[in-house]
Every structure is written in structure tokens, then in C-alpha cells.
């Protein structure tokens, strides 16, 4: 081997040398009903979406532990979906534990009571902050990460095979909720056939705008539930039926998100529903056409009925906060679209094939 080539190989980062054999690894870090999704591309570049709560640096430490598990020395890209405590809270502590390359968010509009989260984001990002709009890409090497929503704006035209959505005619509309959730940065990640959609805390009204009358995002492989699985503020059946997720990850907490289901409102006009119109999140997801698996960060302790939660093997944390270790759910995606989802609590794993 020529000396120059040998020297280059010795200097190349390990991630680069392993690039051919690696998968896309995705970790849903347990942040007790907040959000923190860490994604590591085969290139070795990493993307973190949201940073959980502040709560005594608990979530920053859990994200850092996942980053260590993934062998990361830095987080290349950080997307903050919106300025709420359950998404932005962990950033100040995390940015002291591990370097973060570039920062993305929806802009500087913020609710008065959440000004502190914009301020801490500005401090952590210190001049490395890009405001994103629909159609922008987060430049993770080897992945396509498309911004589909930001600051209440949505993609103007369909992508990923999207088109007219026949479910819209009978679908129920709801009034818009408070602005910050509606400003959530939504992302569609593509790696070959595998598509991951994360609309974060987008509300029902905005979901309907995204898929009616035209489904702008097409069908997806893995969907991270809106509002931590707190339906009916999100999870419109016309969205679920249009995106037809194969696998869903619910990033709930023991007492937050899934289980906080609003009852079906009596003022809904009769018949103006798209099936499955189940008030319970798990039932609605499990009856969505072509779904193959639902995984939960937590068993819901608001609604612990086994019929209202997925199979126990597919739940990462069964107990209340403090009694568990912050187990994560991980997906590992191969180049051909085969992917496995694993529960770190018990090692239980299932393999799927992206359609
Ligand atoms: Zn949230």
C-alpha cells in the first residue's frame, strides 16, 4: 500500500471507514413525555431533534448517554421543533456535555411565557442558528431530511408520492390550538425506501392542512406520534389513514401524552368521522390500515388498561418516573429498507421491511 494512502486511512475517522456496513440508527430517548430523537447516519453524522425537559439535567444526561452508546463525539445538527419546556428544556445542559455543530428552529416568534426557551436556545446556539422553512433540508450526509412544516407554514407541493386524499371528504375539522405547537418544525427523513415522519406537536387543524385535500407527505414507514400520543389534539384519522405508517413510536411519559385522550366531542356532526374514530390513542393507531407495530416509551399510567396500551414487550418503561432507568427504543435501518426496532429494557426486537 502506498504510504500516502496508508496515512490517509490512519487519519480517516472511524465512522468513515465503517460507512459501508453501518445502518441508520435512531434512538427515542426516554424524556418522560418530552421529545428527544437522536439519529445517526451511516456517514457517522448525527441529528438530534429536541432535547427533553430541564428537570435537574436528567434528560440532557440521558441524551448524552445515547450519544455515547452511538459512539458520537459531537452532535452535528440539532433541530429544535418549538420553544416549549418538554422540547427545549434539556438543551442548556446538553450543550455543555457535548459539542453541537449547527442549530435549526422555526424563527423567533415565541409565546411570552416561553421566552426563556428562546433565550436558552439563542445562548446555546450562539451564532450557529438557521431559521428553517418548508422545503429546506437539514444537510445530514447520506440522508435526506426535508423540512415539511415550520412556523405554521407547510410544504406547498406534495413530495414522496403524495397526492389527493380521499379521506378528506368525511374528515372532521377542529379549531386551531395555541400557536407554538402549530409552529413545530416537522421533518420527513428518507433513507431509500425507509421514510420517517415527525410532526412533533403540530395540532389537528394543521395536520388536516398538511394532508387535505392533498396529502403533501405521502406514505411513511415510521411515524413518531404527534403531541406525545395525546389524541385528540392531534392524530387525525385522515392523517393516519393517508400516511399509513407501518410502525409507530409513541414518545409518551407515564402521565403525559398517550392516555390524555379528549373524549369524542358531542358537537361533532353525526357521520362526519373517518374510521377508525377511536378516542383511545392505542386503539386508533392499531386500527389504522396496514399498521404493523406500535411501540411506546412508557406504559400509560393515566390509562393503564392493557387494551389501551401496546404489548408489554414493546413498552420501554413500565413504572413511574424515578423507578426506571430511562430505557430507550431504537430503530436500526439497513440500506435495503429492512429495519429492526428494539426495546432497551428487555432486548425485545422485531424486524420489519419498508414497503
Ligand atoms: Zn411537546
Structure description:
The structure is a single chain. The protein is 20% helix and 23% strand. It is built from ten helices and 18 strands. By secondary structure, the chain is an alpha/beta fold. Helix 3 crosses helix 5 (91-97). The longest helix has 12 residues, at 58-69. The chain has one domain (21-353): 4-Layer Sandwich (Metallo-beta-lactamase, Chain A), CATH 3.60.15.10. Helix 8 links the parallel strand 11 (194-198) and strand 12 (222-224). A nine-stranded mixed beta sheet has the order 6-5-4-3-2-1-16-17-18, with helices on one face. It has helices at 3-11, 14-17, 58-69, 85-88, 91-97, 115-125, 179-182, 204-211, 237-243, 281-286; strands spanning 24-28, 37-40, 46-49, 75-79, 100-105, 129-131, 137-138, 144-150, 153-154, 186-191, 194-198, 222-224, 247-250, 293-298, 315-317, 329-333, 338-343, 349-353. The protein binds zinc ion. Zinc ion is lined by residues 35, 84, 86-87, 201, 228.
Amino acid at each position: 500500500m502506498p504510504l500516502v494512502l496508508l496515512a490517509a486511512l490512519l487519519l480517516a475517522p472511524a465512522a468513515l471507514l465503517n460507512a459501508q456496513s453501518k445502518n441508520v440508527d435512531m434512538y427515542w430517548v426516554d424524556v418522560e413525555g418530552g421529545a428527544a430523537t437522536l439519529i445517526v447516519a451511516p456517514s457517522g453524522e448525527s441529528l438530534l431533534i429536541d432535547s427533553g425537559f430541564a428537570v435537574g439535567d436528567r434528560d440532557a444526561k440521558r441524551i448524552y448517554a445515547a450519544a455515547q452508546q452511538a459512539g458520537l463525539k459531537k452532535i452535528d445538527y440539532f433541530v429544535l421543533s418549538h420553544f416549549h419546556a418538554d422540547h427545549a428544556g434539556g438543551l442548556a445542559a446538553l450543550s455543555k456535555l457535548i459539542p453541537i455543530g449547527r442549530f435549526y428552529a422555526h424563527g423567533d416568534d415565541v409565546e411570552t411565557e416561553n421566552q426563556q426557551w428562546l433565550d436558552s436556545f439563542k445562548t446555546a446556539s450562539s451564532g450557529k442558528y438557521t431559521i428553517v422553512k418548508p422545503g429546506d433540508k437539514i444537510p445530514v450526509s447520506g440522508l435526506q431530511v426535508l423540512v415539511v412544516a415550520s412556523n405554521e407554514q407547510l410544504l406547498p407541493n406534495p413530495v414522496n408520492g403524495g397526492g389527493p386524499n380521499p379521506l378528506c371528504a368525511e374528515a372532521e375539522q377542529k379549531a386551531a390550538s395555541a400557536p407554538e405547537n402549530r409552529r413545530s418544525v416537522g421533518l420527513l427523513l428518507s433513507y431509500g425506501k425507509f421514510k420517517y415522519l415527525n410532526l412533533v406537536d403540530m395540532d389537528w387543524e394543521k395536520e388536516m392542512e398538511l394532508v387535505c385535500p392533498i396529502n403533501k407527505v405521502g406514505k411513511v414507514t415510521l411515524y413518531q406520534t404527534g403531541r406525545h400520543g395525546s389524541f385528540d389534539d392531534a392524530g387525525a384519522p385522515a392523517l393516519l389513514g393517508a400516511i399509513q405508517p407501518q410502525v409507530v413510536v409513541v414518545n409518551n411519559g407515564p402521565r403525559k401524552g398517550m392516555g390524555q385522550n379528549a373524549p369524542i366531542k358531542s358537537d361533532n356532526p353525526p357521520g362526519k368521522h373517518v374510521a377508525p374514530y377511536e378516542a383511545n390513542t392505542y386503539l386508533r393507531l392499531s386500527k389504522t390500515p396496514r399498521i404493523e407495530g406500535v411501540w411506546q416509551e412508557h406504559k400509560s399510567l393515566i390509562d393503564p388498561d392493557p387494551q389501551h396500551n401496546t404489548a408489554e414487550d414493546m413498552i420501554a418503561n413500565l413504572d413511574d418516573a424515578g423507578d426506571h432507568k430511562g430505557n430507550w427504543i431504537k430503530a436500526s435501518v439497513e440500506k435495503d429498507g429492512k429495519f429492526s426496532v428494539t426495546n432497551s429494557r428487555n432486548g425485545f426486537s422485531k424486524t420489519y421491511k419498508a414497503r
